[in-house]
Amino acid sequence: SRRLLEVRGLCSEYLTAVGAVPALRSADLHIGPGEKVALVGESGSGKSTLSHALIGLLPENARLTGGTIRYGGEDITRWSDHQFRSLRGARIGLIPQDPTVSLNPVRTIGHQVMEAIRAHRRISKAAARQQAQQLLDQAGIDRPAVRLRQYPHQLSGGMRQRVLIAIAIAGDPDLLIADEPTSALDATVQRRILDHLDDLAAARGTAVLLVTHDLGVAADRADRILVMSRGQIVESGTAAEVLTSPQDAYTRRLVANAPGLTEPAWAPAPLPEEPEVLLRAEGLCRSFTLPARRGEPRQSIRAVDGVSFSLARGETLALVGESGSGKSTTAKLA
Ligand code: ATP
Ligand code: MG
Fold this sequence. Notes:
It comes from Nesterenkonia flava. By secondary structure, this protein is of the alpha/beta class. The protein contains 12 helices and 12 strands.
């Protein structure tokens, strides 16, 4: 079978104050064109290290100490920064783990998406703006024309994640690496963003390496699951194979502990007898005014519109709503 990506015996270490600490210990994997592969494993198992090694984004204190990475038939293991820069975005797209640190806070969304588009194609600014708007629309962002003029802090976490997806697909890569793209988001937004990613990848024939803690997400979304433990791929198989007959001891533990694949381990807490009200919010409102554009009236967005609630001592209040509904703004106001 044709292989888009082939990693053999990859080893790496981090140089730290206490010496060289190994992170990847002979990791092997391959991904075919258009294939959807999930990489699961506990925190610290090396998922991000592996993803970053594939696109030449290891931090300064990291080095590869063995093995090979082949992409599209080429050995890219010892590529220079310059070579990797031409690969990233154009041939392999990365959706980074943390949307809050991955966007430039002082540049508009439009600037950043257009920059990603123009990095790979010589087109006019006007054409890039048009495409940026289309990409945001495809990534499921409402009112893309307005969003292009906004700054990252004016978007909800879910929308920022969608902007990063738009940036990752701007160069139309053959492989998308999505490093835990939704770990900071609530379950509904997470599901919708992953749906979008599925649709986009299917429509474009893009292969996806989906990095996640969540075995349930991996089983739902991927053609094949790779399990990583202590810097190695210890298991590779279809979701059915991995879930029903895990070969490796670590995978068996992971399957046994997977939330959603087993019974919930919690019960609702009993309510306190006479709750003392700690916080009472009545009719909270907040609107944001967008920067004025020449010849246009100033636009404003109502983020929070008459929200009331109270919170008793010791009580846990869940604020539930879709992405962009105003949860974070409400929390800040309160
Ligand atoms: P998570 O699920 O928490 O994102 P991960 O599977 O992505 O974890 P990595 O971030 O790849 O794991 O970390 C693998 C190992 O390398 C860990 O032991 C981690 O402490 C170490 N490590 C990661 N980044 C660095 C760094 N910049 N310097 C030193 N050690 C690091
Ligand atoms: Mg990680």
